[in-house]
Specification:
Structural class: mainly alpha
Oligomer: single chain
CATH class: Mainly Alpha
Number of domains: 1
Largest sheet: none
Shape: elongated
Order of helices and strands: HHHH
Radius of gyration: 16 Å
Number of strands: 0
CATH superfamily: 23S rRNA-intervening sequence
CATH topology: de novo design (two linked rop proteins)
CATH architecture: Up-down Bundle
Length: 124
C-alpha cells in the first residue's frame, strides 16, 4: 500500500462524517432537501469506493474503484459549490469543506495516474 493509499482512507472517512452532519443541518434547520441529498450520496460514495479499492484482486479493478471515487469527489465539489452559491452554506462552511475535499481529489488523481494500465510493448 502506498503512502497515498494510507492517507486517503481516513480523509474520506472524515469527509463522509462531515457531510452526514451537514446533511442533517441542511434538512432539519435550513429545509434544503434536494442538493443536500445529492451531496450525501456523492460525498459518502468517495470513501465507499476507496474502501472497496483496498480489497480488489487486480490493478485494473483498483484503478476503476479509485476512478469512481474521483468522479464522486468532483461531483461532491459541484454540489458544495451549488449549496454555497444558493446560500444554503456560508463562506466559512464552504471554505472548510473545500479544504477537506481538494486534497482528496489531488490524492485520487495521483492514485489513478500512477495505476494506469501497463503499456504493451510495441509489436514488431
Amino acid at each position: 500500500m502506498s503512502i497515498s493509499e494510507e492517507v486517503i482512507k481516513p480523509k474520506t472517512d472524515d469527509l463522509a462524517l462531515r457531510i452526514i452532519k451537514l446533511y442533517k443541518v441542511l434538512v432539519n434547520e435550513r429545509k434544503e432537501f434536494v442538493l443536500s441529498k445529492q451531496l450525501l450520496r456523492s460525498g459518502t460514495s468517495i470513501g465507499a469506493n476507496v474502501t472497496e479499492g483496498q480489497y480488489v484482486i487486480s490493478r485494473a479493478e483498483f484503478r476503476s474503484k479509485n476512478s469512481i471515487a474521483l468522479k464522486e469527489a468532483v461531483e461532491s465539489e459541484y454540489w458544495i459549490n451549488l449549496l454555497f452559491k444558493s446560500e444554503y452554506i456560508n463562506q466559512k462552511e464552504y471554505d472548510s469543506l473545500m479544504a477537506d475535499l481538494k486534497p482528496i481529489i489531488k490524492i485520487l488523481i495521483s492514485i489513478v495516474k500512477n495505476t494506469g494500465e501497463q503499456q504493451k510493448p510495441d509489436d514488431k
